[in-house]
Amino acid sequence: MIRLEDAKKIIEAAEVKAKEIGQPMNIAVADAGGNLIAHVRMDGAWLGSIDISIKKAFTSRAFDISTKDLGDNSQPGQQFYGIHASNDGKVMIFAGGIPLKKDGQVVGAIGVSGGSGEQDHAVAEAGVAAF
């Protein structure tokens, strides 16, 4: 289980990485049910990325896979092609969503949006490392 206290630590670590790379981000943490626990929009982060960060966290938890890997596997001809149209459009296939695991079991996810896919994924990884 991820508590609010955990989510705040995850977000704080992600914010540190975002500041380090000079890219303001939206950072969301979801619980085991894919429900939002906490969200932060850093000063200057894109408004459009609020929704994307939340949906990246949902997607990572819903499928227990990073959105980067899901995106790689959802291109034309790949096994998950078209998955982004499922779940009433809540599925994001851009890098930046990563499952959060405890004792080998997925207990939630982080979703980050506001930069390039590479930047989003790196910031999400920093949040995961803090968990």
UniProtKB/TrEMBL annotation:
It comes from the Bacteria. InterPro entries: GlcG_carb_metab_protein (IPR052517), PduO/GlcC-like (IPR005624), PduO/GlcC-like_sf (IPR038084). It holds the Pfam family HbpS-like. This is Uncharacterized protein.
